[in-house]
Amino acid sequence: MSVSVGAVALSYFFFFLFFFFLMLVSGVLKGSVLVLEWEMSEKFFMEMGFCMVLDWVACMFVLSVLFISGCVSIFSGFYLSHENFLKRFFFLVQLFVLSMILLILFPNYLGLMVGWDGLGVVSFLLVVYYLSSNSLSAGMITALSNRIGDVCFLLVIGLMSSMLSYSMWGVLLMSGFFMGFLMMLGSMTKSAQVPFSAWLPEAMAAPTPVSTLVHSSTLVTAGVYVVIRFSEYLGELEKYLLMVFSMVTMFLAGSSACAEVDMKKVVALSTLSQVGMMMFVISVGANTIAFFHLLVHAFFKALMFMCVGGVIFYSGSCQDARLLGGAWFKLPLTSVLFLFSNLSLMGFPFFSGFYSKELIVGVCLSSNCGFLSFILLVVCLALTACYSIRSIGLVFQDMGLSSLSFYSMENSYYLLSLLLMMNGAVMMSIVMQSLIKEFLAVSFIKGSLFYSLLIMVVVFLFNLVLFFTVSMKTMFLGFSKDFFSSMWFLSLISGNLISVGVLTTISKYINYVEMGWIRTYLWQSGVKNMFMGMSNKVLKINFNMVGLVMFYSFCFLVMVFWW
Amino acid sequence: MSCVLMLSVSCILWGLGMNEVGWLIMVCAVALLVVMMDCPFNFYILKSEWLGVDEMSVLMVLLCLLVSMMSLVSSTKEVKNGFVVLMSGWSVVEMVMFICLGSVLFFSVCSWMDFFFFFEFSLVPTFFLILKWGYQPERLQAAVFMLLYTVGSSLPLLMSLVYFWSYVKSDNMLLSKMVGGWKDFNMNWPWLIMSLSFLVKLPVYGAHAWLPKAHVEAPLSGSMLLAGVLLKFGGYGLIRLMWFSEVTNSTIVLFVLVFSLWGGVLSSGVCSCQSDLKSLIAYSSIGHMALSLSVLLSFYSVGKMACVCVLYSHGICSPILFSLAANSYEFCQSRSIMLSKGISRIFPVISGVWFFFCILNMGFPPSLNFFSEVYSVGGLLSLQWLLGLMGGLMCLMTGAYCLILYSLVNHGVVSSMVFKPGLNLSYRYLVSSVFGGVLLLGGTLCLDMFFV
């Protein structure tokens, strides 16, 4: 097992370093771009081909994906060490990384669909990896939500086929009416915005390495990446809709994470709120900042998932946070890194997440996004603080309920992956800002004391209000717990209601129409009577001597005298 | 020259002791055909008094040969078994070869009467194939359904072709089109009556009842040929019919388009609730054919291209799904989804192949299925936005049932009701699957050849 883990991880890091070297040498950071196009067909009037683009956006994303995949491979050597089919798992993860890289490198709808469909389908396989009924239902809702996005993208390709180009530069030539809207809708399903959010917490039925790679950094950010690449297609209305939906997603995710008990689902919901924030920034117009937040978030979220995975593994695979606790005493590196990643998520000064969040708030203040949306943004930041502190408390406090005390030492694969990830997560902002000058401050805020304290004060006050509300025991509390813990009833609607409704309707339809009208009525009563009845009558004639003679003489007369 | 080369290579190999030289000859013949494919896609060339060629017919002949090859490879158990089930001297192989012969000639003849003759000729070996190798009473009903539906609806076609022959005084496809064809008539209702035969053969939703029954009761090679080749008769016939009957884009055509598209959506929905593996794949055939028919009837040139592409890619993918279902049947002696499940734990490679062809069926890029689906939906979208939306809905339901099919066969543990699981699955299904997979994935690289 160690050979395969080592081989896989080493190959990822090798490609990472190779790509990094290539990037530095080719001058991509100074603004040069490599474009390769492969024409596939000449039958149509337009350019139909796969177009690969290597600019700094693609390079940075590929580098982060490769680095995180390498760390995740080492981590899965620890987490899935008792697994028999580890090679199969690695094969699936490699297919997934391949699809992601194809998505990143080909901002051309024909090539992008390869990566997009591949992501959806391989993530289905990864979610159903543990072959249980729970994971099957999770996999189904994941794959079907992604399939809705695929259908939207198919319609975009259909629209683009009359607009002369499939690439991201096509908007310069011709731009159709619904393209931006459909593209946004497709990306929203992949990035789990409202109303397609139900699949992300359900997909936590996958093994934790899968969640680390897939649901924190690559799959959900694929939608954001597509919107960033094709953001020229978005008009005013689409940006407005995107802002509304991403706001609702952020609020939904933040409030649900405060009431959720499954530890992995809490982290998934925090991912959801951060992805909503990225979409919000795109809707305001700052694509570069959204991309910066995407990269930085990928690193510290992966670190958070790894820490949570370690705690879950050492508690005997128990994911329920009410039974976890006491990591402070037994898993020092894990708890420190979990603290760091949560502080980074909250935007604590000078951690990784601070720089990107500062830029986000700055660009929202300086743009024309409206007063109410700014208030909602600050409320979501407050909710982020709330659930981050809650999850820190859940993991650290020793409730005396867990089996954490039975393991003596942390696994070496685990430590290695955490160490690699730690360097990535904590200092990634500063490293990126030094490499790429577009990531530095892009807006100027009047730096008086009032504004810099405003947000901290609002966050603190909001959390105080929340604390007092929750500690009162009213009947409202029972309803609000159900409301928030099932994601505003979205998971019930998307999962149970729709699937049960559709399947029972189809079964009834089959019963009445397929078996009833078509088979029975059309065939058995209709056509069959017609044909068989006729042949029965002819046979009856032939059995009677008089009828036989009359029939054949009639045929003879017809043939002789008419022809 | 290439024939000589082919013959000499196969003789040498036979001399060296390789016994399966027949397959080599088949593969070389297919390669020869592929090389011949530089014939133009918008001309129809008469090669002789009997045969005419354009790129679509070469493509369809290629499809016939490939599917017959795959079906013979997959049914080698019936061929090589000591206990061969004969029917007055003929076995499954001869029936398959008759169907192949009839189909190749159907796609190549250039005279309308021969066209109709070979259209009905391939029904006879199929009838025997469905009926004779088994004793369940459902087989009788299935074979009679198929025969009566198809023959009954092709009587109007025969009458109108005979009338056309007497009107134009020639039944050569090219000559009659050059002389003018049906241009003096108002072709709306006559077109519908004439194409009824093809609409039943490529099953449009209302007249589709024969297909699931026939598929479920046929042996594996019968199902493969039925899904792979015989359904394409309808599509090919419609394209040729549209060409010489000067039918225009009127309300009748639009009616058939909407009817078939909505029928495709319904049959894809029905697919999700089937309990019999072969019946599920049969309903998926109806959905794909409905998509190809509706984009053909949009009268765009991309419509015809996408239709032929769908016919071809479905013709390769569906037989392989049937052979995988037969694989499951060998394992647990039942087609029911309650029994044939959980093979992911015991047969990982076959599970991988199931996954691959399920997602190919739903249109996974960069395969040929993806391009056919994309351009079908795109063509419909260009005609009317609502039709494009329906096409998208059908793609969604296709994705749903393909994943349902995969998870039904592969998920979970092996059913405890399977008493004596057959754990010796042979690799012949894998060989044909690999072949088909290479064709479908490699078809992207030569897309111009399939966009006829």
From TrEMBL, chain A:
- UniProt protein name: NADH:ubiquinone reductase (H(+)-translocating)
InterPro entries, from UniProt? ND/Mrp_TM, NU5C-like
The topology of this chain with respect to the membrane is: Multi-pass membrane protein
- The organism sits in which domain of life? Eukaryota
Keyword Cell membrane appears in the UniProt entry: no
Q: What is its main location?
A: membrane
Per its UniProt entry, what is the enzyme's top EC class, as one word?
Answer: translocase
Give one Pfam hit by family name: Proton_antipo_M
Q: Name one GO cellular component term.
A: membrane
Assigned EC number: 7.1.1.2
Q: Which gene encodes it?
A: Nad5
Please give the start and end residues of each transmembrane region.
12-33, 53-80, 89-106, 206-228, 240-259, 266-292, 298-316, 328-351, 371-392, 413-436, 448-471, 483-506, 541-562
Record has Membrane as a keyword: yes
Q: What does the UniProt entry say about where the protein is found? A: Membrane
Q: Name one GO molecular function term.
A: NADH dehydrogenase (ubiquinone) activity
Q: What biological-process terms (Gene Ontology) are attached?
A: ATP synthesis coupled electron transport; electron transport coupled proton transport
UniProtKB/TrEMBL annotation, chain B:
Membrane topology term reads: Multi-pass membrane protein
Q: Name one Pfam family in it.
A: Proton_antipo_M
Q: What GO terms fall under cellular component here?
A: mitochondrial membrane
| Keyword Nucleotide-binding on entry | no
Transmembrane ranges, per UniProt, are 12-36, 56-73, 85-109, 115-135, 147-168, 188-211, 223-245, 251-273, 280-299, 346-364, 384-409, 429-451
- Organism domain of life: Eukaryota
Q: Which reaction does it catalyse?
A: a ubiquinone + NADH + 5 H(+)(in) = a ubiquinol + NAD(+) + 4 H(+)(out)
Q: Name one GO biological process term.
A: electron transport coupled proton transport
| Primary localization class, coarse | mitochondrion
Q: For this protein, what is the EC number?
A: 7.1.1.2
Q: Which GO terms describe its molecular function?
A: NADH dehydrogenase (ubiquinone) activity; NADH dehydrogenase activity; ubiquinone binding
Briefly state the protein's biological role. Answer: Core subunit of the mitochondrial membrane respiratory chain NADH dehydrogenase (Complex I) which catalyzes electron transfer from NADH through the respiratory chain, using ubiquinone as an electron acceptor. Essential for the catalytic activity and assembly of complex I.
Q: Which family does it belong to?
A: Belongs to the complex I subunit 4 family.
The protein's name in its UniProt record: NADH-ubiquinone oxidoreductase chain 4
